[in-house]
Amino acid sequence: MKHEIVQFASLSKDALHIYVGMGVFLIGSALAQKGLRSTFPILVVAVMALVGELLDARDDLRIHGHWRVMASLHDFTNTVFWPLMLWLLARYSRVMK
Asked: Domain boundaries in the chain?
């Protein structure tokens, strides 16, 4: 299914992970109603990324016979990196006050 989404969106898989992570973070922030500083949105992003990679691991085992751990770490990092940077800036600096 991920392959079909990448083709439909005309984005690279890496770009799609970044956009999804940022979108989930911003929606989670809006739902928390505490802004970007709330722990809720970054936890939602991390859990969503982890679940996605566990599903990919299941597919890897079925298709390749082994889990491509480095690919999963790469995808997890792409999904979580920018939301984490925004959350850290909002929470621990004066830049986003």
From this structure: 12-92
